[in-house]
Amino acid sequence: IPIGKLCLYTLCAGLPPYLTLPITLDVGTDNVEALEDPLYLGLRHRRIRGAEYQEFIDRFVAAVKKVYPGTLLQWEDFLKENALHQLHRFRDDLCSFNDDIQGTAGVVVAGIYGALRITGQSIKDQRLLFAGAGASAQGISELMVSALEREGMSREDAHRKIWMVDRGGLVVSDRPGLEGFKQAFARSPEELAGIECADRSNIHLEEAVAFARPTILIGTSATPGVFTEAIVRKMAEMNERPVIFPLSNPTSKSECTAEEAIRWSDGRAIVATGSPFDPVTHEGKRHPIGQGNNAFIFPGVGLGAWVGEVRRITNGMFLEGAQALAEQVSSADLDEGAVYPPLTRIRQC
């Protein structure tokens, strides 16, 4: 994974490969089959957690600061609670970012900006509903809040534009054991007074769509088929051009296929996916499907950090990146409903 990611800095942004260093942090595994496999290359002990885990991460970061004080440290593939915690712990202490959180946010918000170039709507008039409330959803939501604040909206009002549904249903503030990072976008019981649902302790995605009336539906759930025909048709009923982004990858985990999103919306949905999909032809019209690939964003952030000798990576940089990427989408792309440029133009981007 780290070798592949660093290759993209060179391939997409032209950074010299000798400036990159792939690192894997091995904290053990709870996979018994791996532990018993004589060919397993990792450390042969159970996964460390808690204070011992944090001490290890702290020592690693201290070593990076000492040996490579001018480096950019990219976090990748941490569990959601760890990902958010480490990002907040170190973001003001060294030049670093988490691509799963911030890179994903940048490319998705770019897709939203691109979609608004098609619909002609204001970003302040959008309502977002997420299927999935993990680190990616948190990152996208925070960057969307920043985008709304830039347009003059208060932080409190911006938060009210965002809804999340996870395995436990709609994320609500009075849910027992609600994780701390989900609190910011949890809905209060008072807001849900008029909702029609079978079980108020587990409000399903379809029920949330009907009540929240989102203009944008985003999938970060890694749950195939969660965007059902009924949900997509409801989005199309409420919006002339519904924005539907089934972002989970690989393709086997996509919330719906691109073809389903186009067909169930009678060809009106603006669709971007997390996995590559072939263009969809519906009633004679061709719909190219943009892939919300983080490679559109993070290599450019790395290039900018290197050239500018940047000492801190901020959310504002990812918002600037999102706007810049949206501007790279041509009028011809927009006419076909594409919200990203083709990956063949990645060096230009």
Per-chain topology:
Blueprint: H1 2-13, H2 32-35, H3 50-67, E1 73-75, H4 80-90, E2 96-98, H5 99-119, E3 128-131, H6 135-150, H7 155-159, E4 162-166, E5 169-170, H8 205-212, E6 216-219, H9 229-238, E7 243-246, H10 258-264, E8 270-273, E9 280-282, E10 285-287, E11 290-291, H11 298-307, H12 315-327, H13 331-335
Parallel strand pairs: 1-2, 3-4, 3-6, 6-7, 7-8, 8-11
Antiparallel strand pairs: 4-5, 9-10
Helix pairs in contact: 1-11, 5-6, 5-12, 8-9
Task: Report a brief summary of the structure.
This protein is of the alpha/beta class.
Structural class: alpha/beta
Query: How do the strands of the widest beta sheet line up side by side?
Result: 5-4-3-6-7-8-11
Q: What is the residue-averaged pLDDT?
A: 94
Helix content: 40-55%
SSE string: HHHEHEHEHHEEHEHEHEEEEHHH
Q: How would you describe this structure in keywords?
A:
seven-stranded mixed beta sheet, 11 strands, alpha/beta, 11% strand, 349 residues, 40% helix
